[in-house]
Specification:
The complex is a heterodimer of chains A (362) and B (350). By secondary structure, chain A is α+β, with helices and mostly antiparallel strands. Chain A folds into 2 domains: 230 residues, P-loop containing nucleotide triphosphate hydrolases (Rossmann fold), CATH 3.40.50.300; 113 residues, Beta Barrel (OB fold (Dihydrolipoamide Acetyltransferase, E2P)). In chain A, 24% of the residues lie in helices and 34% in strands. Chain A contains 8 helices and 20 strands. Chain A has a 6-stranded mixed sheet with strand order 6-7-8-3-9-10, with helices on both faces. In chain A, strands 13-12-11-14-20 form a 5-stranded antiparallel sheet. Chain A has a 5-stranded antiparallel sheet with strand order 15-19-16-17-18, with no helix packed on it. In chain A, helix 2 packs parallel to helix 4. The radius of gyration of chain A is 24 Å and the shape is elongated. In chain B, strands 2, 3, 4, 5, 6 and 7 form a 6-stranded antiparallel sheet that branches. A two-stranded antiparallel ribbon of chain B has the order 1-8. In chain B, helix 4 packs across helix 15, helix 5 crosses helix 9 and helix 10 crosses helix 11. Classes of the chains: A alpha+beta (362), B alpha+beta (350). Chain A: It is found in: Cell inner membrane. Chain A: It is a peripheral membrane protein. Chain A: It holds the Pfam family TOBE_2. Chain A: Belongs to the ABC transporter superfamily.
Chain lengths: 362, 350
């Protein structure tokens, strides 16, 4: 079992509050990804769960038992650190055995567990090497192996892939997903990379400045971001956000107008928006299409076109200084002086009120 | 040989000697003489007889007069190179000396006695070692006992120094607590207090603790060194905290973290401190002299002092035993100099 419940968690260093009233429930066997920009408190939260740090307020429960004041060792969790934190003076085998020796596990049991982990993570050939003699990817496996042999209630992973090169990161990401599937153990995974979050997570927790902005399944976050921050954070390239003015609102539909002749009617149930209110319209780059004018089309000037092959990323401006990024599934677009016409489909628009909260749903 | 020449004439490059080549060559050669000259002279002189030590001008190498057994004489006679009136030189053996005239014989013709003015003869000398300078103190003096005392003091003091200083450094580098920086400041501040200032109060403390005239009285007051704490703390600060966190997650107790993670990782700094401690404790003179009054407890350095009496200084023994006391320190430097240089470079200490 590995159910972790956080209730009203606060953490402050002196007068500086790092975490504000965090409430989170992590289900057994779930892969929960904490994501956010650096300094948002996600690593601090992980350290609180690990027991390496104590909250200034709130409760942490593991499987219903209050562990707020229990030491890290007693919580039965295992952690993979960003720097791997392998003991450099011990061989890989000793690294794996260290935690087990500390709980006075019989030697035969230790050997069996190491053999099993080594087979699973394919680190058997390096068992007698020192961490210094391993490549980054191998160190990464050993670090995971050190967590696996512990047979923990839950895994805590602190940006485990950030020290790997791009190619290795993708393959290791897939292996982590496979490992999670096989072990079916709760994992809490911290990253600042939203792609990692999207690909690995059962649920994503988006954090900013010590607060949880939104919790949900990856596609829910992508399709219905709760606020401007989540909208900008999830998805790459990031969502285009355009300032608009409300022209009319009738409770289920809002008519907005924006720069470059942008005019759209977005469905919004029970909105409190009134005419002349400021709002922000969001549209994902992949949802924008090239058009030949017509309803909802805006005229844009392409400043840069990045041809990637299957698609072309264009950077454009509308009405002077409103930047727009679009990903078009064609190759024949080039930067040019003459404006082009882009269609922003109404049904794929996201509308946020002046406070940055979502008002429209698709 | 050609390798040595290549080494000695090594230049910075180019076809000719640059002036910096010459300056650095002279600088290094001068440094070599200044650093090694006294040591070579010491070792050479330690093999000289007392008479030769008093000689002027002094020599670097020890010499002894050549002797020969001549038929009809029981004792070996000293050989001299003699300038004969006819201008030739010959090696003769001296029988006896009367005033300024020496009676000499040719070892090949022992019956003809030749009278020679002592100004015309010069002893035939060869390099020879007065090894009794070394054997005498071991056989007739309690040098072995001093050696044992010194080894005991050095070994125990170094062990305790390493243990206590590393514990203090661990706490000061890896734990956050109120007054940590003040504590560190106080410890480093004691660097400014020389031994001579605290000699008398320290003596009272040791005396009150009943440690006078005991080797522990020499060991214990010296084990807590601010230099050691500072050196180890600076090194431990470079050990990432994530390692300690990883060990905590691995169910390690704080003692295990210290003993199994931090100590092994601080090995280079510990080696440096061990070297320093060995050299310090081995060369200690004043404090052991103050604490120890029973002769059988003397350490080497204090023991050496006994050869210097009020009226008579037995230089040959002092020199020889100085060489012996230097050997361990030299060995330490020869084998561990890698650590010493890295330690000095790493901590900025000397």
């Amino acid at each position: 079992m590995g159910r972790i419940t956080l209730t009203n968690i606060d953490r402050a260093y002196g007068k500086m509050k790092i975490l504000h009233d965090i409430n989170l429930d992590v289900g057994d066997g779930e892969m929960l990804v904490l994501v956010g920009p650096s300094g948002c408190g996600k690593s601090t939260l992980l350290r609180l769960i690990a027991g390496l740090d104590r909250p200034t307020g709130g409760r942490i429960e593991i499987d219903g038992a209050d562990v707020t004041d229990v030491s890290a060792a007693q919580r039965g969790l295992a952690m993979v650190f960003q720097s791997y934190a392998l003991y450099p003076h011990m061989s890989v085998r000793q690294n794996l055995a260290f935690g087990l020796e500390n709980v006075r596990m019989p030697k035969t049991e230790i050997d069996a567990r190491i053999a099993e982990a080594a087979r699973m993570l394919e680190i058997a050939p390096y068992l007698d090497r020192r961490p210094g003699q391993l490549s980054g990817g191998q160190k990464q496996r050993v670090a995971i192996g050190r967590a696996v042999v512990r047979n923990p209630t839950a895994f805590l992973l602190d940006e485990p892939l950030s020290n790997l090169d791009a190619e290795l990161r993708i393959s290791t990401r897939a292996e982590l997903a496979a490992l999670h599937k096989r072990l079916a153990t709760t994992m809490i995974y911290v990253t600042h990379d939203q792609v990692e979050a999207m690909t690995l997570a059962d649920r994503i927790v988006v954090m900013r400045s010590g607060r949880i902005e939104q919790v949900g399944r990856p596609l829910d976050l992508y399709n219905a971001p709760a606020n401007l921050f989540v909208a900008g954070f999830i998805g790459a390239p990031r969502m285009n956000l355009l300032p608009v003015k409300v022209r009319s609102a009738n409770g289920s539909q809002v008519h907005v107008e924006g720069p470059g002749g942008l005019s759209a009617v977005v469905s919004a149930d029970g909105t409190a928006l009134k005419p002349e209110d400021d709002a922000t319209l969001g549209i994902r780059p992949h949802d924008i299409e090239l058009s030949d004018g017509g309803k909802g089309a805006v005229s844009a000037k392409v400043t840069l076109a990045e041809a990637l092959g299957p698609e072309t990323v264009i950077h454009a401006t509308i009405a002077g200084d409103n930047k727009l990024v679009a990903v078009l599934k064609r190759q024949d677009v080039e930067a040019q002086d003459a404006p082009i016409s882009l269609t922003l489909p109404w049904e794929r628009m996201h509308l946020f009120d002046a406070a940055g909260l979502r008002v429209a749903s698709r | 040989m050609s390798g040595v020449m290549t080494f000695l004439t090594r230049r910075r490059g180019g076809r000719f000697w640059h002036w910096t080549d010459i300056v650095s060559w002279l600088w290094l050669a001068g440094g070599l003489v200044i650093m090694f000259g006294p040591a070579v002279w010491l070792v050479g002189s330690s093999f000289k007889t007392p008479a030769q030590l008093a000689e002027f001008p002094p020599t670097i190498l020890p010499y002894v007069s050549q002797q020969a057994t001549v038929e009809g004489h029981d004792k070996p006679l000293t050989l001299y190179s003699v300038k004969l009136p006819d201008g030739s030189t010959k090696v003769l053996a001296e029988l006896r000396r009367i005033g300024i005239v020496a009676q000499m014989v040719d070892p090949k013709a022992p019956d003809d006695i030749v009278k020679v003015n002592i100004a015309n003869r010069e002893p035939v000398r060869e390099i020879g070692f007065a090894t009794e300078n070394y054997t005498e103190p071991f056989v007739h003096f309690e040098f072995l006992r001093y050696l044992r005392n010194s080894v005991f003091v050095t070994a125990m003091a170094t062990l305790i120094t390493l243990l206590t200083n590393s514990m203090a450094a661990f706490a000061l580098s890896k734990y956050r607590f109120r007054g940590r920086d003040l504590t560190m400041l106080l410890i480093v501040g004691t660097l400014m207090v020389p031994l001579s200032v605290i000699l008398v109060p320290l003596y009272s403390v040791v005396s009150a603790a009943g440690l006078l005239d005991s080797l522990w009285g020499v060991i214990l007051p010296t084990v807590a060194t601010p230099t050691g704490v500072f050196l180890l703390r600076q090194y431990m600060l470079t050990i990432p905290d994530e390692l300690l966190d990883a060990a905590r997650m691995d169910n390690a107790s704080e003692w295990q973290i210290y003993w199994r993670i931090v100590l092994p990782l601080a090995a280079p700094a510990l080696a440096v401190l061990a070297i320093f401690s060995v050299v310090w404790r081995w060369n200690d003179f004043l404090w052991p002299l103050v604490v120890l009054s029973r002769k059988e407890l003397y350490t080497l350095q204090v023991g050496l002092n006994t050869y210097a009496g009020q009226l008579n200084v037995q230089w040959h023994f002092i020199l020889a035993m100085t060489v012996v006391t230097m050997i361990p320190v030299v060995l330490v430097f020869v084998f561990l100099q890698r650590y010493i240089t890295s330690g000095i470079a790493g901590t900025g200490l000397k």
